[in-house]
Amino acid sequence: MALKNSATGEMRRAYSIEELKDAAKLMRGYDLISLNAAGSGHAGGRLSIMDIAAALYLRVAEHDPANPDWEDRDRIIWSTGHKAPSLYLGLAIAGFCPLEDVVLPCKLGSPYQGHPHWLKLPGVEVSTGSLGQGLSTALGVALAGKLNGKSYKTFCIMGDGDSRRARSGRRLWGDRRQGPVWRFGRSLGADQGIRGQR
Ligand SMILES: Cc1ncc(C[n+]2csc(CCOP(=O)(O)OP(=O)(O)O)c2C)c(N)n1
Questions:
Q1: How many C-beta neighbours within 10 Å does residue 166 have?
Q2: Residue of the nearest CA to atom 9 in ligand 1?
Q3: How far is ligand 1, taken at its centre, from the CA of residue 115, in Å?
Q4: Per-residue pLDDT reduced to its tens digit, 125-167
Q5: Residue 130 Cα: closest atom of ligand 1
Q6: What range defines the domain where residue 65 resides?
Q7: Nearest to 189 by CA among 145, 156, 162
Q8: How many domains does the chain have?
């Protein structure tokens, strides 16, 4: 499990926990520059998700920066699209795009917009930003994998406010035994919004 060379199946690099902590610190540093450059942004959520972003992009998810559309890659869906810079930094630290580019967000024509756009930047799975949509999209992506006999995993990054929106509310979360999210427990990992969503 990690960054892979999709052509050979070899692992590109094995990151230790210490290296992941260092990567998260570096990503936070870049994010502070980015926040300053833009003069605005959701600082709290962006900075607090960075450990998870470093772990996901560098060690947990199986994907290949040299082949972002690799069909067996794990999918990471940012339901909290307003944390886009953390997504960009996750991609950048994994080698999908240059780190330096990410600190100049929201410029006209730039792929690093305030909310992620999947057609603008390789590695962005889904355009998000309207809270409450990511979980249902992630379920669809996980279901497609199951129906197609794929073994990729789907991760969904959520926030508290995000998980309270109607489309990711009780009908999707359900209860522990019957809700669709729990039934997809092995292929869909949702983060951050799990607390309080029984
Ligand atoms: C449907 C919708 N309503 C409102 C907003 C505006 N908005 C952007 S971020 C945010 C707060 C999100 O809170 P949370 O999901 O807990 O994220 P975190 O605080 O962890 O960044 C709101 C209300 C939005 N993006 N989409």
A1: 9
A2: 82
A3: 12
A4: 999 999 988 888 988 898 899 899 999 999 999 888 887 775 6
A5: 26
A6: 17-191
A7: 156
A8: 1
